Amino acid sequence: MTAKYLLCSFKTCPWVQRAAIVLREKQIAYNITYIDADKAKRPRWFLDISPHAKVPVLQIDGQHALFESNAIAEYLDETIAPRLHPEDPIARARNRAWTDYVSTFASAVSDTAYADTDEEFSARSVRMHEPFGKLDAALAQRGNAGPFFNGTKLSLVDAAYAPFLQRYTFMARLRTLGIIEKYPHLAAWRDALLAAPAVQASTVANFEAVWRQNLIARGRWLGKFVGG
Fold first, then answer.
1. For 43-47, 97-101, 103-107, 190-194, which range has the lowest pLDDT when averaged over its residues?
2. Do the bridges between strand 5-9 and strand 57-60 make them parallel or antiparallel, or are there none, so unpaired?
3. pLDDT-based confidence at 140, cuts 50/70/90?
4. Per-residue pLDDT for 118 more than 80?
5. pLDDT band at 1, cuts 50/70/90?
6. Of 188, 163, 172, 173, which is closest to residue 125 (Cα–Cα)?
7. Burial class of residue 160 in the structure, from the number of CB atoms within 10 Å of its CB (0-12 exposed, 13-18 middle, 19+ buried)
8. Cβ neighbourhood burial of 87 (10 Å; 0-12, 13-18, 19+)
9. What is the pLDDT of residues 171-185, one digit of tens each?
10. What is the CATH number of domain 89-225?
11. What per-residue confidence (pLDDT) applies to 71?
12. Domain boundaries, the chain
Protein backbone atom coordinates (compact mmCIF):
# COMPACT_ATOMS: atom_id res chain seq x y z
CA MET A 1 0.00 0.00 0.00
CA THR A 2 1.29 3.44 -0.93
CA ALA A 3 1.98 5.68 2.04
CA LYS A 4 0.17 9.00 2.38
CA TYR A 5 2.34 12.03 2.98
CA LEU A 6 1.32 15.41 4.39
CA LEU A 7 3.90 18.22 4.40
CA CYS A 8 3.33 21.03 6.90
CA SER A 9 4.63 24.37 5.74
CA PHE A 10 4.67 28.15 5.65
CA LYS A 11 4.35 29.50 2.12
CA THR A 12 7.85 30.99 2.03
CA CYS A 13 9.89 28.55 4.14
CA PRO A 14 13.09 27.44 2.34
CA TRP A 15 13.51 24.40 4.57
CA VAL A 16 10.08 23.09 3.59
CA GLN A 17 10.96 23.77 -0.03
CA ARG A 18 13.99 21.51 0.40
CA ALA A 19 11.70 18.63 1.40
CA ALA A 20 9.28 19.46 -1.41
CA ILE A 21 12.09 19.30 -3.99
CA VAL A 22 12.97 15.79 -2.84
CA LEU A 23 9.32 14.73 -3.00
CA ARG A 24 8.96 16.21 -6.49
CA GLU A 25 12.19 14.74 -7.82
CA LYS A 26 11.14 11.29 -6.63
CA GLN A 27 7.63 11.88 -8.02
CA ILE A 28 6.05 11.13 -4.66
CA ALA A 29 2.42 12.17 -4.35
CA TYR A 30 1.86 14.34 -1.28
CA ASN A 31 -0.48 16.90 0.19
CA ILE A 32 0.64 20.14 1.77
CA THR A 33 -0.98 22.22 4.49
CA TYR A 34 0.01 25.78 5.33
CA ILE A 35 -0.02 26.87 8.94
CA ASP A 36 0.26 30.40 10.28
CA ALA A 37 3.79 31.81 10.44
CA ASP A 38 2.84 33.56 13.70
CA LYS A 39 3.94 31.27 16.52
CA ALA A 40 0.98 32.34 18.66
CA LYS A 41 -1.44 31.15 15.98
CA ARG A 42 0.03 27.74 15.25
CA PRO A 43 -2.53 24.98 15.90
CA ARG A 44 -2.26 22.59 18.81
CA TRP A 45 -2.09 19.51 16.57
CA PHE A 46 1.00 20.97 14.89
CA LEU A 47 2.73 21.87 18.17
CA ASP A 48 2.15 18.31 19.34
CA ILE A 49 4.21 16.87 16.47
CA SER A 50 6.86 19.58 16.02
CA PRO A 51 9.20 19.77 19.05
CA HIS A 52 10.72 23.08 17.83
CA ALA A 53 7.29 24.41 16.74
CA LYS A 54 8.87 24.82 13.31
CA VAL A 55 8.26 23.56 9.79
CA PRO A 56 8.79 21.35 7.95
CA VAL A 57 7.00 18.40 9.43
CA LEU A 58 6.18 15.38 7.29
CA GLN A 59 3.27 13.25 8.45
CA ILE A 60 3.22 9.67 7.17
CA ASP A 61 -0.10 7.82 7.05
CA GLY A 62 -1.39 10.10 9.80
CA GLN A 63 0.61 8.06 12.32
CA HIS A 64 4.23 9.17 12.15
CA ALA A 65 5.66 12.67 12.06
CA LEU A 66 9.19 13.58 11.04
CA PHE A 67 10.67 17.01 11.72
CA GLU A 68 13.86 18.76 10.48
CA SER A 69 14.37 19.03 6.73
CA ASN A 70 17.56 16.96 6.60
CA ALA A 71 15.98 14.06 8.49
CA ILE A 72 12.98 14.19 6.14
CA ALA A 73 15.17 14.22 3.03
CA GLU A 74 17.31 11.34 4.28
CA TYR A 75 14.24 9.28 5.18
CA LEU A 76 12.68 9.77 1.76
CA ASP A 77 15.95 8.87 0.08
CA GLU A 78 16.35 5.69 2.10
CA THR A 79 12.81 4.45 1.51
CA ILE A 80 11.79 5.53 -2.00
CA ALA A 81 13.63 5.09 -5.29
CA PRO A 82 15.42 6.53 -7.10
CA ARG A 83 18.20 7.27 -4.65
CA LEU A 84 19.43 10.84 -4.81
CA HIS A 85 22.53 10.16 -2.73
CA PRO A 86 25.57 8.69 -4.54
CA GLU A 87 26.15 4.95 -4.17
CA ASP A 88 29.88 5.40 -3.51
CA PRO A 89 30.39 5.78 0.27
CA ILE A 90 33.10 8.44 -0.04
CA ALA A 91 30.98 10.50 -2.42
CA ARG A 92 27.95 10.00 -0.17
CA ALA A 93 29.88 11.18 2.91
CA ARG A 94 31.13 14.21 0.97
CA ASN A 95 27.57 15.00 -0.06
CA ARG A 96 26.41 14.80 3.54
CA ALA A 97 29.22 17.11 4.62
CA TRP A 98 28.25 19.75 2.04
CA THR A 99 24.61 19.32 2.98
CA ASP A 100 25.57 20.11 6.57
CA TYR A 101 27.27 23.30 5.35
CA VAL A 102 23.97 24.60 3.97
CA SER A 103 23.11 26.20 7.30
CA THR A 104 26.16 28.49 6.98
CA PHE A 105 25.28 29.31 3.37
CA ALA A 106 21.62 29.86 4.26
CA SER A 107 22.42 32.21 7.13
CA ALA A 108 24.53 34.44 4.89
CA VAL A 109 21.71 34.75 2.36
CA SER A 110 18.82 35.06 4.81
CA ASP A 111 20.58 37.55 7.08
CA THR A 112 21.13 39.80 4.08
CA ALA A 113 17.54 39.54 2.89
CA TYR A 114 16.20 40.41 6.34
CA ALA A 115 18.46 43.40 6.99
CA ASP A 116 16.74 46.40 8.57
CA THR A 117 18.80 49.20 7.03
CA ASP A 118 20.81 50.05 3.91
CA GLU A 119 24.03 49.91 5.93
CA GLU A 120 23.14 46.56 7.45
CA PHE A 121 22.21 45.15 4.04
CA SER A 122 25.55 46.23 2.56
CA ALA A 123 27.56 44.84 5.47
CA ARG A 124 25.76 41.52 5.48
CA SER A 125 25.95 41.07 1.72
CA VAL A 126 29.75 41.16 1.93
CA ARG A 127 29.61 38.11 4.20
CA MET A 128 28.14 36.04 1.37
CA HIS A 129 31.50 36.00 -0.39
CA GLU A 130 33.04 33.39 1.92
CA PRO A 131 30.38 30.64 1.60
CA PHE A 132 29.86 31.46 -2.09
CA GLY A 133 33.59 31.08 -2.69
CA LYS A 134 33.77 27.76 -0.86
CA LEU A 135 30.88 26.31 -2.86
CA ASP A 136 32.36 27.63 -6.09
CA ALA A 137 35.66 25.89 -5.34
CA ALA A 138 33.89 22.62 -4.54
CA LEU A 139 31.94 22.80 -7.79
CA ALA A 140 35.10 23.60 -9.77
CA GLN A 141 36.74 20.38 -8.55
CA ARG A 142 34.09 18.30 -10.35
CA GLY A 143 35.36 19.28 -13.79
CA ASN A 144 32.70 19.01 -16.48
CA ALA A 145 30.61 16.46 -14.61
CA GLY A 146 27.24 17.99 -15.42
CA PRO A 147 24.92 20.76 -14.22
CA PHE A 148 24.18 19.39 -10.74
CA PHE A 149 26.40 18.83 -7.73
CA ASN A 150 27.15 15.21 -8.62
CA GLY A 151 26.79 15.52 -12.37
CA THR A 152 23.69 14.80 -14.39
CA LYS A 153 21.31 13.77 -11.59
CA LEU A 154 19.79 16.05 -8.98
CA SER A 155 20.92 15.11 -5.46
CA LEU A 156 20.08 15.90 -1.85
CA VAL A 157 22.83 18.55 -1.96
CA ASP A 158 21.05 20.26 -4.85
CA ALA A 159 17.74 20.12 -2.98
CA ALA A 160 19.33 21.71 0.08
CA TYR A 161 20.94 24.69 -1.67
CA ALA A 162 18.35 25.46 -4.36
CA PRO A 163 15.95 27.40 -2.08
CA PHE A 164 18.69 29.76 -0.92
CA LEU A 165 20.17 30.30 -4.37
CA GLN A 166 16.64 31.11 -5.49
CA ARG A 167 16.24 33.67 -2.73
CA TYR A 168 19.60 35.22 -3.54
CA THR A 169 18.31 35.64 -7.09
CA PHE A 170 15.13 37.28 -5.83
CA MET A 171 17.22 39.69 -3.75
CA ALA A 172 19.42 40.58 -6.70
CA ARG A 173 16.34 41.53 -8.72
CA LEU A 174 15.42 44.09 -6.07
CA ARG A 175 18.91 45.41 -5.38
CA THR A 176 21.94 44.77 -7.60
CA LEU A 177 24.42 42.63 -5.67
CA GLY A 178 26.96 41.49 -8.25
CA ILE A 179 28.23 38.72 -5.98
CA ILE A 180 27.34 35.44 -7.64
CA GLU A 181 28.77 36.72 -10.95
CA LYS A 182 32.22 36.51 -9.34
CA TYR A 183 31.75 32.75 -8.86
CA PRO A 184 31.04 31.23 -12.30
CA HIS A 185 30.68 27.63 -11.15
CA LEU A 186 28.19 28.63 -8.48
CA ALA A 187 26.32 30.84 -10.95
CA ALA A 188 26.02 27.98 -13.45
CA TRP A 189 24.84 25.64 -10.69
CA ARG A 190 22.25 28.21 -9.61
CA ASP A 191 20.95 28.50 -13.17
CA ALA A 192 20.65 24.70 -13.52
CA LEU A 193 18.85 24.36 -10.19
CA LEU A 194 16.33 27.09 -10.85
CA ALA A 195 15.54 25.50 -14.23
CA ALA A 196 15.06 22.01 -12.75
CA PRO A 197 11.42 20.85 -12.88
CA ALA A 198 11.47 19.62 -9.27
CA VAL A 199 12.62 23.03 -8.05
CA GLN A 200 10.11 24.93 -10.16
CA ALA A 201 7.27 22.74 -8.84
CA SER A 202 8.34 22.98 -5.18
CA THR A 203 6.67 26.29 -4.29
CA VAL A 204 3.32 28.01 -4.43
CA ALA A 205 2.35 29.73 -7.67
CA ASN A 206 3.79 33.23 -8.22
CA PHE A 207 6.34 32.45 -5.54
CA GLU A 208 8.61 35.44 -6.12
CA ALA A 209 5.66 37.79 -5.59
CA VAL A 210 4.71 35.90 -2.41
CA TRP A 211 8.32 36.14 -1.19
CA ARG A 212 8.35 39.88 -1.84
CA GLN A 213 5.11 40.40 0.04
CA ASN A 214 6.63 38.53 2.98
CA LEU A 215 9.44 41.09 3.10
CA ILE A 216 6.87 43.86 3.30
CA ALA A 217 4.82 42.04 5.95
CA ARG A 218 7.95 41.58 8.09
CA GLY A 219 8.91 45.22 7.69
CA ARG A 220 12.30 44.48 6.13
CA TRP A 221 14.33 47.21 4.47
CA LEU A 222 14.47 45.34 1.16
CA GLY A 223 10.68 45.41 1.01
CA LYS A 224 10.74 49.14 0.24
CA PHE A 225 11.96 48.30 -3.27
CA VAL A 226 9.07 45.99 -4.07
CA GLY A 227 7.02 47.47 -6.87
CA GLY A 228 9.54 50.27 -7.40
1. 43-47
2. antiparallel
3. very high
4. yes
5. low
6. 172
7. buried
8. exposed
9. 999 999 999 999 999
10. 1.20.1050.10
11. 97
12. 5-79, 89-225
Confidence of residue 38 (pLDDT cuts 50, 70, 90): confident
- Same fold for the pair 5-79 and 89-225: no
What per-residue confidence (pLDDT) applies to 228? 54
CA 198, CA 17: separation in Å to the nearest integer? 10
Question: From CA 154, how far away is CA 185, in angstroms rounded?
Answer: 16
Determine how many CB atoms are found less than 10 A away from the CB of residue 91: 13
Largest CA distance in the chain: 56
Q: Taking the domain 5-79, which CATH number applies?
A: 3.40.30.10
β partners of residue 58? 7, 66
